[in-house]
Amino acid sequence: MLTIKREIKVLMVLTEAARQKLNAELYSLQKRYELELEQLDFQAKKLLYEAQRKGRDAIAIVERRLSQEKTAREEKLAEIAVRLEHIASLADGSEIPYTTVQSDVEIRVGDCFDELMNGAEIVLVDGIVAEIRKGGKRGE
């Protein structure tokens, strides 16, 4: 016998309370990234001023880095917008991916490895474990 780790999908059943919680989390993230973009704009002036004293290479490096940072935040904001739209379009009762966790599983000679490693899911309804599925089947 050997104990190994496997990933388990955690799904959330969309209810009005879950929808409100997800929206609140996403709006909070959205505000954070918008604030980070504002801070980047503020820092950009200072960094570019300092880079001017060091030469063209320094300016190019700072501009490239600022552009990368700004693009990363803008991409996150776009992802959040897509997720908000997706959540709004789903009907109550829909199952959506929430997170992934790890679990220990014991394996023995003769076990079907694929069955042990695949298909385990935990289903949450308003933060409460409503169902545990093993091997793609409804279980405990």
Characterization of this structure:
By secondary structure, the chain is of the alpha+beta class. It is 54% helix and 28% strand. It has three helices and five strands. Strands 2-1-3-4-5 form a five-stranded mixed beta sheet. Helix 1 packs antiparallel against helix 2. The longest helix has 37 residues, at 16-52. The two termini are 24 Å apart. The model has no long low-confidence stretch (mean pLDDT 90).
* Beta-strand residue percentage: 25-35%
Largest sheet properties: 5 strands, mixed
Query: What is the alpha-carbon Rg in Å?
Result: 23 Å
Order of helices and strands: EHHEHEEE
N- to C-terminal separation? Answer: 24 Å
Q: Number of helix segments?
A: 3
Structural class: alpha+beta
Helix content: 40-55%
Low-pLDDT ranges: none
The tally of strands reads: 5
Give the overall pLDDT as a whole number.
90
What form results from the Cα inertia axes?
A: elongated
Strand order in the sheet with the most strands: 2-1-3-4-5
